[in-house]
Structure formats: C-alpha cells, structure tokens
Design a protein that fits this description.
Order of helices and strands of chain B: HHHHHHHHHHHHHH
Distance between the termini of chain A: 22 Å
Radius of gyration of chain B: 24 Å
Strand content of chain A: 15-25%
Helix content of chain B: over 70%
CATH class of the largest domain in chain A: Alpha Beta
Number of helices of chain A: 10
Number of domains of chain A: 2
CATH architecture of chain B: Orthogonal Bundle
Shape of chain B: globular
Number of domains of chain B: 1
Structural class of chain A: alpha/beta
CATH topology of the largest domain in chain A: Rossmann fold
Strand order of the largest sheet of chain A: 6-7-8-3-9-10-12-11
CATH class of chain B: Mainly Alpha
Oligomer: heterodimer
Radius of gyration of chain A: 20 Å
Chain lengths: 326, 322
C-alpha cells in the first residue's frame, strides 16, 4: 500500500475577492521508502499540497479528489481519527526561518509534546527520547532547554527535523526545509535528511523551488506549474533531459558545476508565474514559453506518457496511441 | 546579567519618584500660589487672621523656604496636614484608600478576567457570532463615558427599582460589624463596581482580541495542529500564551491606576475613596493633600511600570535573553 496517494486533487481557496484555484488536478503516489521531489515557483500550489495532506488548510477551502494516507481518505476521517493520524502517519518538516516554533516555549518541550500526545510514555521517557532525537539530528541533548531564538537558523531546522521524527512517521513531508539557510548549512541539512531517509526507510516528499537540491535527494521528481504537475519522472532524467519547456527553463536556471559556459551564463525564465485567480487560456505556461505555437493558447494539454516512467504535459509531445493519459 | 537588569529597572524607578517629589511641589503652586483667600472666601476674616492662617499653612516664607520645609517633612514620612480638614494627609489618604482599593481593585480584576476571556473567544473565531456579539458589546461599553453608564445604572437599579442603595460606602449610622458589615458594603459597592467593570472590559477585550488575531496565522500554530493537538489545546498552550503579552502590560499598568481611584464614578455614587478626596482637594486647592495624592498616584504608576518590565522578562524569554 502506498504511504500517500493523491487522486486528482483539486484545492480552491475561498476569499472575499473570489475563488482561487491553487491546485488543479494533481495525482501523485509515494511508496514506502520512496523519495519524491515536488518543484515549482512560489504560488504554483506545492505548499498547499503539504497542508492538504494533514488537512491543515482553512476550513472553507474547497477540496476535490482524494488524499489517501496509508490507504485512508484524510477527508473522510472523523476528528479523533484525523488527530491520531497527524504526525504518526505523516509529519511535516516546517521551514525553520519562519515562526514554526513557539517562541515562548523551550524546544524540548515542543518535541516532547508530540511524543506525549501520541504515546503512553511517561514524561521521563519522553525527555530521554527528546535527547536521543536531538542527538540524532546533530544537536547536543542539552539544547532541549533552549528557546527558539537562542538557536541559529540551521539549529532550528535540525530541531524541526527532530520534531518531525518524534512519532516515527513513515512519511516525511519537507516543505522548503532549506530555503532560508546558507549554502553550507543547506548541504548539511540535506545530507541529514537523506541519511535519515536511508536509515529509517522513510518515504519523503520534498517540496522546494530549488531543482538542483531535488536531484541529489530524490529518486523521482514532479514539476508543478500553475497548480498542475507538468512533468514527472526519474529526477536525473527530468533535470538532465527535460521534456517540458518549463522544466527545461528551471533546469537551465542553475549553473552546472564543471561547465564554465553555463556558470557564466545561467538563463532565467522571463515573466512572472501566473495569478492562480486568473490563469491564461489553454496551456497556462504558453505566455512565457519559447516553444509556444498558436494552438497552445487554445489547448490545455494533459500529461502525456514519454517513455516508461515519464510524463509531460506539452503539445509538442506526441500522443501515444492517440489518447491523452491523465 | 539578570541582576543587573533588575537593578537597572529599580534604580530608574527610584529616580523617577524623586523627580515626581520635586515636581509635585511646584505643579500646584504654578496655578495658584496663595490659596488662603480662596479657601476662606465668603468668611469675613481680617488681614491679621489671614496672615495667621498663612503661617499655619507654611505659606508665609519664600518659595524656596517652603520647598525646603516640604522636602524635610516628606523625608520624615510626614506629608503635612490637610488645609481643609486640618488632619494629617497620611490619615486622610489611609481612610480613603480601602474603599478605593475595594471598588477599583475588584472592578479591574473582574473586567480583566471577563475581557480577556471575551477577547480569546472572539479572536479565535473571527467573524463568528461570538466575535460580532463580543466586539459590539465591548465597543459600546468602551466608548460610552463611565459617568453616563453610572448615572443610567443608578437611575434604573437604585431609583426606578430600588434594589441597590443610591450611594455611600455603608448604611448611614450602621453599627454592623464583621460579616454583616461586609455584606452591607458589598451591597453598596455593587452598582459602582458593575459600572467600572463594564467601562474597563472593552479595553482588555479589544487588546486581547487583536493580539490573538495577530497570532492565529502563525506557523507554530499550524505546526501544533499538524502534531495532532486538539483545537482547544492549540489555543490554550500555544496561541494564548503568545497573545497574552500585550494584555499583561496593559493589566499591570491599569493596576497602577487602581490607587488613583475613579473620580467620576466615585462622585456619582458618593463613594468615599481616593477619587472623591482628589476632587475635594482640587476644589480647595488643598496643597498638602494634592501633593500626597499625586505622590501616591505617581508612586503606584512607577511601581506598575516596574512590574510590567519585570513581568515581561519573566513571560517572554526573548526579552530576558539580551
């Protein structure tokens, strides 16, 4: 059974200025021990998906499709069931630079809270476990007594990883866990996550805008644009030989180490991501696409099979057997 | 580090108090430097008699001599005698203090508790029925003047339906002691206490609500929810402790105001507290009484500020860490 399965997930935020479709039909599966990267610009809906998995989005948000956690539909669960599933079936590694930790509570207490909530451990056992967890993520156990503001950004990120591991979930959702860190610390945190994933056989959904981070961490990669997956497949293939012009533009935006030409001349992607409340007609990427043809503004292309394990949603990809595969 | 922080705050508070002590003397003399004429207006006193009063009140020497005499006696803990009653100011204040502490203190605590609870209920569910009702209620009581509220309550609950006495601290000529005296005083205190509580609630409610509204979208609440905590636990353990900080400083400062009494409401209900005493002293003008009252008021404000500083460093580790 898959750890997480998204089936044609639609998410629409409701606001006073109208509905905003943030996610428009995303299907994704993560099996035990598998690492999947989800990439895209800000506003493409990737963090919305993280919130949707544990049902953390605002109450009035419209959810279509299904989110199956360990085979159970999260949106059919009773409140008690949902609370029990949170943090045990899947836990989220929040971004440490934001106020993800309660500023007036010691970090050890915040980790212990999750342990005490989901187990019958005594306080002493929980404290012991907090020390072990901190040690595992490379912090001395006595840092449990620190307040968040007394820690550096990298240390806070480690605390958040320890916190996510507190109830031994089988699936970790890392939502931009390295975004605000400097490159050295970023590398350390990535290595730690990769190590933990290997040691514990964790499933990992890694959400970031940084494609180069994903190729080193994830086996599989899904690129999102305007609330949809536009390309997915093995990460080296997607990053190395992108099929969709958008993934190609993302890949080009990062200089290749050892290639002076690309290093001196990383190409960006002109224009801004589209406003989810007012998407362009046809393929939402066509106004920024260098391969766009006239038909692009009229046809909204579904994901098409490219080879064995790859799919991309572009009009230039030949349709296999004449049928769109969604 | 910690001791230096506290010592610095205490030293600052002491300095402010000394300044107030000096300032108080000149403040009232700027307005009217010889109140004997006004104090005995309408009474046919000869120049000779007036001069004797002036000597009695220590108003005959130069400003500087008066000031030195004032400093000397204040240092000895003697605040002088009231011009009006000729009794020591300390005695006058002590007698007015208990009714004020009972009335204003009770109202402050009640309004704080009710206001904070209303603010939490309203801020946690923004735009819900609870929010709309609590906010409208608080806005109304907050914007209505307390003397108006006092008069309306008086008109209905003491005059139209005489459930409560119209004023005073206890029944006239009461000889009751112990519990029955306390009961009688509580009966007299009910209306002014309700008036003040209503008048104060809005401030706490509005500050608590807006502070909680700032907190509800914080990431750490999202994380607390993601952990699987119940909504009420998220609110109690993570949201409220963070949102409470501005309310704590507001409350501590308001406790400083307790000793200054409530001039308008005490006047309406003839409550023999500090507010009434201040009103009478201003009418005099009764210099020693005013000096004493202002010293009390400033002293309690300075203490309240000191308490806020120290309390804040206890509640918010970020303040303490520096």
């Amino acid at each position: 059974m898959s750890l997480l399965e998204l089936r044609d997930l639609h998410i629409t935020y409701r606001s006073e200025r109208g509905d905003v479709p943030a996610v428009r039909g995303v299907s994704l599966t993560i099996d035990p021990g598998e690492t999947v990267g989800l990439a895209g610009e800000s506003g493409c809906g990737k963090s919305t998906i993280a919130g949707a998995v544990l049902r953390l989005l605002p109450k009035q948000t419209l959810i279509g499709g299904q989110v199956l956690l360990d085979g159970e539909d999260v949106y059919q669960m009773k409140p008690g069931q949902l609370r029990a599933a949170r943090w045990t079936s899947a836990a989220i590694v929040f971004q440490g630079a934001l106020h993800a930790l309660n500023p007036v509570q010691r970090v050890g207490k915040q980790i212990a809270e999750a342990i005490l909530l989901h187990s019958s451990h005594s306080k002493q056992v929980a404290t012991q476990r907090v020390g072990d967890l901190l040690e595992r993520v490379g912090l001395p156990p006595h840092r449990a007594r620190a307040y968040p503001h007394q820690l550096s950004g990298g240390q806070r990120q480690r605390v958040l990883i320890a916190l996510a591991l507190a109830c031994e979930p089988k699936l970790l959702i890392a939502d931009e866990p390295t975004t605000a860190l400097d490159v050295m610390v970023q590398a350390q945190v990535l290595e730690l996550l990769a190590e933990l994933q290997r040691d514990r056989g964790l499933g990992l959904l890694f959400i970031t805008h940084d494609l180069s981070v994903l190729t080193s961490t994830c086996e599989r990669l899904a690129v999102m644009y305007a609330g949809r997956i536009v390309e997915d497949g093995p990460s080296h293939d997607v990053f190395g030989t992108p099929e969709h012009p958008y993934s190609a533009a993302l890949a080009r935006a990062f200089p290749t180490i050892g290639d002076p030409a690309s290093r001196m001349n990383p190409t960006g992607l002109a224009g801004d991501p589209p406003n989810p409340a007012n998407l362009p007609s046809g393929c939402p990427f066509h106004p920024r696409c260098d391969k766009a043809i006239e038909a692009c503004s009229a046809t909204d292309v579904e994901l098409r099979q490219v080879g064995v394990a790859r799919r991309a949603a572009c009009i230039h990809i030949p349709v296999e057997g004449g049928i769109d595969r969604g | 580090m910690r001791a230096r922080f506290v010592a610095g705050k205490v030293f600052g508070a002491f300095g402010t108090l000394v300044f107030v002590l000096v300032f108080n003397f000149f403040l009232f003399r700027v307005v009217n430097d010889d109140p004997t004429g006004k104090l005995f207006r309408g009474r046919n006193l000869s120049q000779d008699q007036l001069d004797r009063r002036r000597r009695e009140f220590n108003l005959d020497g130069s400003k500087f001599e008066q000031f030195i005499a004032y400093l000397k006696q204040t240092m000895r803990g003697n605040l002088g005698d009231s011009f009006l009653s000729r009794r020591p100011v300390t005695t006058e204040i002590r007698e007015a203090l208990w009714p004020t502490i009972a009335l204003v203190g009770t109202s402050t605590i009640l309004s704080m508790l009710i206001g904070i609870m209303l603010g939490i209920a309203a801020g946690w569910r923004r735009r819900s029925g609870t929010d709309v009702a609590a906010t409208s209620f608080s806005m109304f009581t907050y914007s209505v003047p307390d003397f108006w509220l006092g008069m309306v309550l008086l008109a209905f609950f003491a005059v139209k339906w005489p459930w409560f006495p119209t004023g005073g601290f206890e029944d006239a000529g009461s000889t009751a002691t112990g519990f029955s005296a306390l009961l009688d005083q509580a009966h007299h205190m009910a209306l002014p206490c309700i008036t003040l509580t209503l008048a104060y609630i809005g401030e706490y409610m509005i500050v608590m609500r807006s502070s909680l509204l700032d907190t509800v979208n914080e990431d750490f609440l999202q994380l607390a929810r993601a952990k699987g905590l119940r909504d009420v636990v998220v609110r109690r353990r993570h949201a409220v402790p963070n949102a409470l900080l501005p309310v704590v400083s507001l409350s501590a400062l308001n406790f400083g105001y307790v000793l200054s009494g409530a001039i308008a409401v005490e006047a309406i209900y003839s409550w023999p507290g500090i507010g009434q005493a201040t009103l009478e002293a201003i009418r005099g003008p009764d210099f020693p009484m005013l000096q004493g009252l202002f010293l009390l008021l400033s002293g309690s404000m300075i203490l309240a500020n000191l308490a806020v500083d120290l309390l804040y460093s206890l509640l918010d580790p970020r303040v303490r860490g520096r």
